[in-house]
Amino acid sequence: MNILYIHFHDLQDEQLYSRLLTLLAEYTPLVQALPPDAALADVSGSLRYFGTDATALAERIRARTGGLYGLRSTVGVAANPLLARMVAADGPPSAVRTLPDDIDTVTAFLAKKPTAALQGVGPATARTLSSYGLDSVGRIAAAPLGTLQRILGVTAGRHLHDVARGLDPTPVIPSAPPRSMSVEHHFTQDELDRNRQRAALLALTDRLGLRLRGESQVACALTLTIRYADRSTTTRTRKLHEPTAHTRSLTALAYDLHDRLALQRARVRTISLRAENLIAAERASRQLLFEPTDEKARRLEAAADRARDRFGTEAVQPAGAAAIHVA
Amino acid sequence: MRGFTHLHAVSGFSLRYGASHPEQLAERTAERGMDAVALTDRDTLGGAVRFAKAAGRAGVRPLFGVDLAVEAPPEVAGRTERRRTPARGGAFVDESAQRVIFLARDGARGWAELCRLVSAAHADTAGDRRPLLLWDALGGEHLTVLLGPTSDVGRALAAGRPDRAAQLLAPWRERYGDAALRIEVVCHGRSGTGSGSLRLAARALGFAADQRITPVLSNAVRYVDPGQGPVADVLDSARRLVPIDPRGERDCGERWLKPATDMARLAEQVAEAAGYRVNTARRLLEVTEETAAACRVDPEDDLGLGRVHFPEPGLVGAHRRTPERVLRSKCAAAMLLHRYDRDRHRWERLEDELRLIERLGYASYFLTVAQVVADTRELGIRVAARGSGAGSLVNHLLGIATADPVEHGLLMERFLSDRRTELPDIDIDVESARRLEVYRAILDRFGPERVATVSMPETYRVRHAVRDVGLALGLDPAEVDKLAKSFPHIRARDARAALQELPELRGIDPESYGPHMWDLVEALDALPRGIAMHPCGVLLSDATLLHRTPVVPTSGEGFPMSQFDKEDVEDLGLLKLDVLGVRMQSAMAHAVAEIERTTGRRIDLDDAAQVPPDDPKTFQLIKSSQTLGCFQTESPGQRDLIARLQPETFHDLVVDISLFRPGPVAANMVDPFIKSRHGRQAPRCPHPDLEPALRETYGVVVFHEQIIRILSVMTGCTPAFGDYTRRALSNADQVGRVRAWFAQEARRRGYEEEVVERTWEIVEAFGAYGFCKAHAVAFAVPSYQSAWLKAHHPAAFYAGLLTHDPGMYPKRLLLADARRRGVPILPLDVNASDAAYRIELVSDVEGGRPVHGIRLALCDVRGMSESEAARIVTGRPYSSLQDFASRARPSRPVAERLAQVGALDTFGRNRRDLLLHLAELHRSQRSSAQGQLTLGEVGAAHSAVAPVGLPDLDDAERLGAELGVLGMDASRHLMGDHRELLEELGVTSAKRLKDLPHGQVVLVAGAKGAVQTPPVRSGKRVIFTTLDDTTGLVDCAFFEDSHEACAHTVFHSWLLLVRGVVQRRGGGSGKALSVTGSAAWDLTELAELRREDGLSAVTERLTQADSPSGRAAGSRSLQLETGYALHPWADLQPPGESVKQSRKLWHQSPGSAG
């Protein structure tokens, strides 16, 4: 029980978050960031140095962050990240909760939990499982492995079989960067007009590209999520031809995703765009073209980026997005 | 100043387009000093008859026209592009076709041509294709064609392409010739060059001059008064199914019925803009008037208002002889057949009736109806006449009515007389499930050119108005849905009043929906929003039918349907026959068929030898008021009345049915009747002469026939005049005159002053409320037959009820009733169940003797299609799950639901294991090639599936699955789950309630059956609801003082706990029992509280005072013209979801049912 799952409440400031991560690093080098407001820490190596147990260390971290930044936090302490997460979520906020590392306690703890509390069990899987009466972790644990595999398939069944017993072999990996980045546009009224939707998309890809290039990252895929007046959503994901942060490519793909939905009477409330599978820009390959337009556009973009850097983001904007004020 | 005629004006019959009623159009035209106006609705002539009548009243000349979408002529048609199907939200409504106005001229020929065009435009509207007139279907005669801004010519002009406009005009000139063609000039003062702009108007005028086509000025009227633009916007939005775009183009507000001066000013503006002088404007107005003058169609002569058209006599058996002769000989033959030939009285009556029919010229009509009834019987469909037609001996002899009018004392005059101006009305009841077969038989007999069904405009009421306005304003769909459902089914114009007065709507803040919401909701009131097939009317006419009415195919069955509704059809003099589908007839037919299938015994319900009219067992059932499921006697009020009245004979049943009408209840005819019946009050009889008329109902006047007799006895008038006078009694203005006449005539015949006085009291008190005895007899027959079936063949009876669902209660209530009466309920089983409910002999019941049980039916499984059920039935028996999956090929959700409710239990005990096997079978079926059977496996497979270790459904989950899938608790009663809580609270069961004294305070609980707010005598709003627990039914009434606290709970919860007081009423035995509720709670919520926080939390909830919401209930009541008060919101379908239709119902699943 040396894994801590720390969740800070009401944290919105990205800079404060990175400071908190630095603070955690004072206790152990093994800190994995779970943006925007949580982190995992493996304190096995630090206990001897601090001369306490993990629970006391967790209390210290809570007290310290509370004192420094006035932040409330909840910490779960358990034998692996899965259980640490679950025990943290198992009660009112602002507390330290520990799950002792013995098999009976863990089994009893898990038995009553709903299926969806398990990591990796989304709403769809939970629905499938509960249609077979497997609506609590205890019932899943009681089901034979073969049955689970018949329901979910071999790999997923095996995984579920393990996690239902509280087994989670994943280690805490320090400093894993965020893997995706998303931007969103709310319309002030239900929007049916295709051109206005496209204008919003253009504003979004512009913003997304700027941020990606600012952080020297490239996206491998784009996800378009459209939320409608009845609160339902449509989501479409597609890979980019090559990993890129180039606004033009992002826009082309976003437009294409949008065109394929062919929305006519749908009452669109929100459009959000997420860049997926981010990797460092230097690892991206790029197809060179004989045609000079792409090259020119990139140079133009670089110039615009520099201008924005100096005069603010508003300084340069795509003309097509000017009609839309991006919140 | 000359007048002006609007040649282009629409009414609300232009669905979701016009914002005014056709009557208003005629009235405003007269008010604004114009002499004529055209009605040119979109795609319909449905408003024409009302319009013509209103125009007649207002003194303006009606012009008839229609606005049709017309296909572009082939030589100029553009390309059409195909668009991708949207992933969400649906496609835009396609309104791209050009619209052209056709005005009828040349009298009847013009009208016939209009009818033909409208019918042709609708000919191909299968699916949801919109009406479109193909170019080839255009005629060329008898019509004037207006090409306005929405025609292709107008659009080309708007696009600045007069050359293209000329090209598009050519095919029209070719068809109709220049003389019948008009260019419509419309100016709404819009900017730009689009429709309604001054520039387009000027261009159109110039174009007309260039092309030498006469222009006409119009205002393209959509609403009669200024300021109705926002309503038009809402209608546009409802038609296009998109919210109003605040940045987009809105209605300009100018499209109202402007007076002549305004139109003259517009003409000047347009002429000036087109570069002409003032005399051109004057000329424009003149030619508009000339066009109007040419479009002459006379409502009486050309539409055929006020004339009668029967099918040709040759079609109903009168080839060589006149229909009168044929009718006479048929009646005479039937007299012999019924062995009435020695009865002089009957011969005389027949002669009277026949002479009357001949005088009125209705012989063909009687032969036609007789023909339809005979054809229906031929098909083996149960058929019975209902209504006043049962009073005619001719109808009885022709086989139309079963009951003998002479025996029951029914009068012909109530049905047909010299003094009745309207067409006689014979309604026939047939089995609802086979109603369409009857329609087809009629179509086959008379041919599609003479037969059409009648339409019924569906008009905006509050719920739809809220929905459409909500959509138009772009409100949150979920919130709009909730808001709409919280209203009872009232008129849209009462929305604001309801919000103020109804306690269950107190939670709604009317201001939170924007400033115009309720204005718009109320503005939509009563506008048509759709046209549906009338549930029973069938038109029968001669071969000219299609020249007089436009006919469109109905959406489902493709029957020809006239665009005119019931009243219009009567005004047009078309013979309408009401063929009512009665579910109870289907249910009884099903029951009889089941009895024959299982026992081989064939029962004829109409045969007095097999179903004696004085069967003691049946009357015992009726007297115990356990008439749930019986025709006309199952409502809580009826059961209450029956318990007090204690019917002993068929005649008592007739009286019972007549008494349970709003009128008699309001006039308090019930109490004196019951008192006299049980001997606690002497029957009233002012004079011995009246004894024969009054004796049968203890001096209380129940039937119209009695009033007619009394009038006839006292004044010596003919029964025909008696009927005429009786009808005058319901009109407050005429009562005085009738009274004077009555007193004078009676005195002259020597009756004493006091007798006259007392008789008049009776006549006046009950005259307006009585019920036609012929109706009551016609109702009482199936009512008695169903009670007989329930008493003697309960299983078959319930099987019929459950299959055809005729009553007001949800099916689960019927099932509970069956269980209480000891009928075994057999679970759903794919190897035993049929598509419909069947009965089976069950041998192992307590008591030893085998009885019939009900086998649940596949048709009630949610999502089961008819073809799926048929496939399952034909494939029986199945040896294994795999066998079932491969041969019956059910869809996966249906197969899973079958497993959940235990229909597949023969293949394995654990239902969840079955689910997993089904999923795998489905997957493997999908991956293997379709249609190939794996031969080896079918025979070799084990009959039971191997267990896989999944947890089986527990009891609560099984019940949940039954409710979710079948909509009823089939294995046990759903209240069983709450027994513990109910015991702790000391809730009284329905059975024990019978032993409690009047006035005791009790708690009762149960699943909600039906909810009603009928009109009651006191003029208050009372909510009646029926609760059902494991032991029986409890009828609860909530009076107005308790509504504040409980109306919302009663309307919107499914399981109820009610605090109330026991009420006992009625005859000596005091059998009528109900509970007057003072508070109600949602039982599900209480059970939840108890499970989570124990009994004390429940106590907390029960003792918690509901905070009264400050606003005092406005107690308004409507004063009926007869002096009785009526609550304004009574007699409406109450808010909340209908108990009958919903499946989710009483059960809120604690987890997943699956």
UniProtKB/TrEMBL annotation, chain A:
Domain UmuC residue range list: 1-122
Pfam families: IMS, IMS_C, IMS_HHH_1
InterPro entries from the UniProt entry: DNA/RNA_pol_sf, DNA_pol_Y-fam_lit_finger_sf, DNA_pol_Y-fam_little_finger, IMS_HHH_1, Rev_trsase/Diguanyl_cyclase, SulA_CellDiv_inhibitor, UmuC
GO biological process terms, semicolon-separated: DNA repair
One MF term in the entry's GO annotations: DNA-directed DNA polymerase activity
Residue ranges that the Swiss-Prot or TrEMBL entry lists as coiled coil: none
PROSITE patterns reported in the protein's UniProt record: UMUC
UniProt keyword terms in alphabetical order: DNA damage
UniProt keyword annotation of DNA damage present: yes
Function: Poorly processive, error-prone DNA polymerase involved in untargeted mutagenesis. Copies undamaged DNA at stalled replication forks, which arise in vivo from mismatched or misaligned primer ends. These misaligned primers can be extended by PolIV. Exhibits no 3'-5' exonuclease (proofreading) activity. May be involved in translesional synthesis, in conjunction with the beta clamp from PolIII.
Family (UniProt): Belongs to the DNA polymerase type-Y family.
Protein name as annotated: DNA polymerase
Record organism: Streptomyces regalis
TrEMBL record, chain B:
CDD domains, per the entry: DnaE_OBF, PHP_PolIIIA
Subcellular location: Cytoplasm
Pfam families: DNA_pol3_alpha, DNA_pol3_finger, HHH_6, PHP, tRNA_anti-codon
Broad EC category: transferase
Domain of life: Bacteria
GO biological process, one term: DNA replication
InterPro entries from the UniProt entry: DNA_pol3_alpha_NTPase_dom, DNA_pol3_alpha_thumb_dom, DNA_pol3_finger, DnaE2/DnaE/PolC, DNAPol_HHH, NA-bd_OB_tRNA, PHP_dom, Pol/His_phosphatase_N
Positions of the UniProt region annotated as Disordered: 1128-1154
Segments forming domain Polymerase/histidinol phosphatase N-terminal: 5-72
GO CC field: cytoplasm
Main location: cytoplasm
Record-listed E.C. numbers: 2.7.7.7
Reaction(s) catalysed by this chain's protein: DNA(n) + a 2'-deoxyribonucleoside 5'-triphosphate = DNA(n+1) + diphosphate
GO molecular function: 3'-5' exonuclease activity; DNA-directed DNA polymerase activity; nucleic acid binding
Keywords: Cytoplasm, DNA damage, DNA repair, DNA replication, DNA-directed DNA polymerase, Nucleotidyltransferase, Transferase
NCBIfam families reported in the protein's UniProt record: polc
Family of the protein in this entry: Belongs to the DNA polymerase type-C family. DnaE subfamily. Belongs to the DNA polymerase type-C family. DnaE2 subfamily.
Name of the protein described by the UniProt record: DNA polymerase III subunit alpha
Organism: Streptomyces regalis
